[in-house]
Every structure is written in C-alpha cells, then in structure tokens.
Amino acid sequence: MAKVVVATPDVAKKKWEENLAKAAPKLVRRATSPEATEAYKRNLAKFLGLTPEQISDEAEKRNASLSRLTPEAFLEAIKGKGTKWYEEMKAAFAD
Fold first, then answer.
1. What number of other Cβ atoms are within 10 A of residue 11's Cβ?
2. C-alpha dist (Å) from residue 48 to 54, 58, 63, 80, 87
3. How confident is the model at residue 32 (pLDDT cuts 50, 70, 90)?
C-alpha cells in the first residue's frame, strides 16, 4: 500500500477535488437508494422527535431533488471548492 503524504495545502485541495470526482457516480447513486431514503427518514424523524411517517413528504421531495442530480452536475457543483473545504477544515481545527 502506497503511503500518501499531503505536503501542501494546494496538494490537499487538489486531492479533495480529485477524490470527490472519482466518487461522484457512486455518491449520486447511493444518495437516492431506498436504503438511503429510509435512513434519512429514520434519522431526521429521530432528530425532530417525530415518526418517519410524519416526514414522508419531505423524504419524497428530497428524492425528487436528488434524482435530478447527475454525476456531471455534482462535479460541476464541487469544481473549485477545494479552497473552501480547506479553509473550513483549518478553521475547525483552529477553534
């Protein structure tokens, strides 16, 4: 197994974008799976103190929205966001 060393923030930003680009098709496919929908309903309902049935409409809206997402659209949405990711991560560790 190769050892990965991130030498600079610029390398880290680039790797973040590259890794998400590789994962985009799987992320999009998994987000709309029946298992993901059930987990979303269960976890959101638990967080809000409701039953999964009470948020079924919200889960359907979520799936409708996610079903329009393509891997290409996902890639476009994250393009150039490596800097934002890095700055937010850095700020989280600084606090």
1. 13
2. 10, 13, 19, 34, 31
3. confident
pLDDT tens for each residue of 33-90: 889 989 999 999 999 999 999 988 988 898 888 888 888 888 888 888 889 989 998 8
Q: How far apart are CA 31 and CA 38, in angstroms?
A: 11
Query: Cα–Cα distance between 41 and 29 in angstroms, integer?
Result: 18
Q: Which amino acid is at 38?
A: E
Q: Taking each helix axis from N to C terminus, what angle separates 71-78 and 9-31, rounded to the nearest 10 degrees?
A: 150
The full set of domain ranges for the chain reads 13-94
pLDDT(1) > 60:
no
82 CB burial (10 A radius; 0-12, 13-18, 19+): buried
Distances (CA, A) of 86 to 13, 22, 63: 6, 19, 29
Distance separating alpha carbons of residues 80 and 95, to the nearest angstrom = 25
